[in-house]
């Protein structure tokens, strides 16, 4: 289940945004847990001290105590995959190329028209690989890893090693076997010995794949065109 | 030497040399689509070695056997790799020469080792163990070499040509060195033939290299020309639009004067009529902000006007990040061409209710994804040159698509086109980087 927070100092805005959000969720047939905050410091405390997890936050920028901007800056290290939709009374906001966690700016005056679009777009991305779990059985011990947490899988001798933010899991199977078991279009070979998760590929530059985690892998000449095409097709469909 | 041993070694030798040759040709032709599997090559080499033994049974001469082998290799390479015929034949020729030379060199060295100084005059049946070992060694090394380059197989065309050139030079020098020694008698014409062969090889690969270079330069010149034309075309459109704006601004003074006059005289009805008449041309130029870049926004807005005129429904969903290294003129080339194609295809759709264009631009991680969908009555012809215009004879179109690709190339991106259910879709993916702008 995905988790969403709405944070706004005006109760009426919270109410109207929640209605829009509920409608989007039911249209997309998505189950979500929604928490609302009327104080930004309460949200900050929940994330930083109590380790609350959120996939999406609807955030008012203009708030007393901690502004939306400050809040976004502070929670980013704790929730690296967070998507934030900023709601603002200013119109002059464009997302900065450096800013990864900000998903979109929505002007308060155009909430009714533009918030549903932004929500639909965000939900579609959050839904990718959301519940898929890959199970590894090593020495009668089961280890589970969420598809969306898998960064890349590397050949390790005759076996394979799955890398995720929490560490590396070794699998007593060949890379090709793991690839076939995963069986989704998100996983692509960039070299004979490495499979990456498309959703974590930040960019391709000079035959090199840059992952969200900071890992950098060369793409073999044999795979380069195919990798670019697969990324193109994948995002072209989801958009 | 017994016949069985002779035929056995013949089959083994042929298999090794043919297998190595096929693998090496595959690497040098930069074949990638067939993957790493070398089973077809294995089968071809096996069958060719059987054929060679059969030919040997019927006492066909050595030279004829060599010719048959070369022809078979060439035929296999041509049909299996479906590659440039000239190149395949050239590589096959090259390999035949190199292999024969290696045999020749191996025999001479074996002569040194065994003290059999008349080795070159021996017939095949007279070869001793030492000769067989050397001939086997040469093939073995050759096969190892081929397998090694196949494993790496990450060469550029240029590197390969260079390697051939060096091989030719090396052969030339080793031949000169061999001709200078006095221990083993090498007939003068043999030396001469070899020298000529190596000179030919060197010259051929120098020419090949030059051809590649010239082709590259031609391509660059063509792209430059195309870019210039495209830029001029876009600028002409934009300029035109701006001049309409300028004229409207100029007229504004006059209109204001007329309105002031009418209002002063309390002629309200006429003032309202005048204003209504005015608002018509004003509507044609909207100034919606889509990307925040004036030029690109103007481009989108002007294409929207064109869509409106053609009774085409439009849906624009644009999210464009600030401070990227994506240059406005590259994005203009991409959007301008894609939108022009879409407009043209839409105008041909007979049912006006079906006409639509949908433009979506989104940022995903550090990539910009541009998707354009539009209605189209028929499948556009897409060949390796790009999209062919439905109008015959308009060269601008193929160029347009090529310039989209050129622009995408700058950002390690590509464009993919698709057509199904009367909907044409083009997706361009670009990788960008954030750029610090000092304010």
- CATH class type of the largest domain in chain A: Alpha Beta
Amino-to-carboxy terminus distance of chain B: 88 Å
Please state roughly what percent of the residues of chain A sit in beta strands, choosing from under 5%, 5-15%, 15-25%, 25-35%, 35-45% or over 45%: 25-35%
Tell me which protein chains meet in the greatest interface and how many residues each side has. A-B, 31 and 34 residues
Biggest beta sheet attributes of chain A: 5 strands, parallel
Spatial shape of chain A: elongated
Largest sheet of chain B: 5 strands, mixed
| Number of structural units classed as domains of chain A | 2
How helical, in percent, are the residues of chain B? 55-70%
Oligomer: heterodimer
User: What is the name of the CATH topology of the largest domain in chain A?
Assistant: Rossmann fold
N-to-C SSE series of chain A? EHEHEHEEHEEEEEHEEEEEH
Number of domains of chain B: 2
Order of strands, widest sheet of chain B: 1-2-3-7-6
> Order of strands side by side in the largest beta sheet of chain A?
2-1-3-4-5
- Rounded average pLDDT of chain A: 90
Query: What's the gyration radius of chain B in Å?
Result: 35 Å
Tally of helical runs of chain A: 6
Cα shape of chain B: elongated
| CATH architecture grouping of the largest domain in chain A | 3-Layer(aba) Sandwich
Helix-strand sequence of chain B: HHHHHHHHHEHEEEEHEE
Question: Would you mind describing this structure in some detail?
Answer:
The complex is a heterodimer of chains A (239) and B (439). By secondary structure, chain A is of the alpha/beta class. Chain A folds into 2 domains: 2-131, Rossmann fold, CATH 3.40.50.2300; 135-238, Beta Barrel (OB fold (Dihydrolipoamide Acetyltransferase, E2P)). Chain A is 32% helix and 33% strand. In chain A, the strands form 4 sheets. A 5-stranded parallel beta sheet of chain A has the order 2-1-3-4-5. In chain A, strand 6 and strand 7 (141-146) form a beta hairpin. The model of chain A has no long low-confidence stretch (mean pLDDT 90). Chain B folds into 2 domains: 3-221, no CATH class; 288-439, Histidine kinase-like ATPase, C-terminal domain (Heat Shock Protein 90, 2-Layer Sandwich), CATH 3.30.565.10. Chain B is built from 11 helices and 7 strands. A 5-stranded mixed beta sheet of chain B has the order 1-2-3-7-6, with helices on one face. In chain B, helix 10 links the parallel strand 1 (313-318) and strand 2 (356-364). In chain B, helix 4 packs antiparallel against helix 5 and helix 7 packs antiparallel against helix 8. Mean pLDDT of chain B is 80; it is low at 391-397. The A-B interface holds A 94-100, 104, 117, 121, 125, 201-206, 210, 212, 220-222, 225, 228-229, 231-233, 235-236, 239 and B 32, 153-154, 292, 317, 319-324, 360, 362-367, 369, 371, 412-416, 425, 427-429, 431-435.
């Amino acid at each position: 289940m995905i988790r969403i927070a709405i944070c706004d100092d005006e109760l009426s805005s919270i109410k109207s945004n929640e209605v829009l959000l509920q409608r989007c969720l039911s249209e997309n047939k998505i189950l979500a847990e929604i928490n609302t905050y009327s104080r930004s410091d309460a949200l900050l405390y929940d994330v930083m001290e109590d380790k609350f997890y959120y996939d999406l936050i609807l955030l008012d920028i203009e708030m007393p105590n901690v502004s939306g901007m400050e809040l976004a800056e502070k929670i980013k290290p704790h929730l690296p995959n967070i998507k934030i939709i900023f709601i603002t009374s200013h119109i002059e906001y464009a997302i900065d190329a450096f800013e990864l966690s900000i998903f979109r700016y929505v002007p308060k005056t155009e909430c009714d028209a533009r918030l549903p679009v932004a929500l639909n777009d965000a939900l579609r991305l959050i839904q990718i690989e959301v519940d898929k779990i890959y199970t590894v059985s090593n020495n009668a011990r089961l280890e589970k890893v969420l598809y969306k947490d898998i960064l890349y899988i590397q050949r390790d001798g005759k076996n394979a090693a799955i890398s995720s933010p929490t560490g590396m899991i070794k699998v007593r199977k060949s890379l090709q076997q793991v690839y076939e078991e995963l069986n989704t279009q998100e996983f692509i070979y960039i070299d004979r010995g490495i499979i990456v998760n498309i959703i974590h590929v930040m960019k391709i530059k000079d035959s090199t794949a840059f992952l969200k985690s900071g890992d950098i892998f060369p793409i073999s000449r044999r795979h380069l065109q195919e990798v670019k095409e697969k990324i193109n097709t994948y995002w072209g469909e989801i958009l | 030497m017994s016949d069985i041993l002779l035929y056995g070694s013949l089959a083994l030798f042929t298999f090794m040399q043919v297998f190595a040759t096929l693998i090496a040709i595959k690497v040098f032709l930069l074949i990638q689509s067939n993957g790493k599997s070398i089973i077809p090559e294995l089968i071809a080499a096996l069958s060719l070695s059987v054929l060679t033994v059969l030919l040997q049974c019927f006492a066909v001469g050595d030279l004829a056997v060599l010719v048959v082998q070369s022809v078979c290799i060439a035929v296999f390479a041509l049909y299996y790799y479906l590659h440039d015929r000239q190149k395949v034949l050239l590589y096959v020729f090259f390999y035949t020469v190199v292999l024969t030379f290696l045999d020749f060199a191996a025999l001479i060295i074996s002569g040194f080792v065994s003290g059999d100084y008349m080795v070159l005059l021996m017939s095949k049946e007279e070869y001793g163990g030492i000769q067989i070992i050397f001939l086997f060694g040469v093939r073995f090394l050759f096969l190892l070499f081929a397998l090694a380059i196949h494993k790496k197989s990450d060469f550029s065309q240029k590197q390969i040509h260079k390697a051939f050139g060096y091989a030719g030079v090396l052969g030339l020098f080793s031949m000169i060195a061999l001709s200078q020694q006095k221990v083993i008698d090498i007939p003068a014409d043999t030396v001469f033939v070899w020298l000529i062969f190596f000179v030919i090889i060197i010259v051929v690969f120098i020419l090949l290299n030059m051809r590649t270079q010239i082709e590259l330069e031609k391509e660059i010149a063509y792209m430059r020309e195309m870019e210039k034309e495209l830029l001029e075309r876009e600028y002409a459109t934009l300029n035109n639009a701006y001049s309409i704006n300028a004229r409207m601004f100029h007229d504004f003074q006059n209109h204001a004067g007329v309105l002031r006059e009418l209002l002063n005289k309390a002629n309200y009805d006429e003032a309202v009529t005048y204003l209504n008449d005015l608002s018509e041309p004003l509507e044609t130029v909207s100034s919606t902000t889509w990307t925040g870049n004036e030029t690109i926004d103007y481009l989108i807005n002007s294409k929207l006007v064109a869509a409106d005129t053609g009774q085409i429904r439009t849906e624009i969903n644009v999210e464009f990040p600030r401070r990227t290294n994506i240059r406005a003129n590259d994005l203009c080339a991409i959007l301008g061409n894609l939108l022009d194609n879409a407009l043209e295809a839409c105008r041909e759709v007979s049912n006006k209710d079906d006409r639509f264009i949908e433009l979506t631009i989104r940022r995903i991680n550090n990539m910009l994804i541009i998707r354009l969908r539009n209605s189209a009555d028929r499948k556009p012809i897409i060949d390796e040159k790009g999209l062919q215009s439905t109008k015959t004879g308009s060269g601008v179109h193929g160029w347009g698509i090529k310039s989209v690709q050129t622009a995408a190339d700058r950002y390690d991106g590509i464009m993919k086109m698709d057509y199904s259910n009367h909907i044409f879709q083009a997706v361009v993916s670009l990788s960008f980087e954030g750029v610090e702008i000092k304010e």
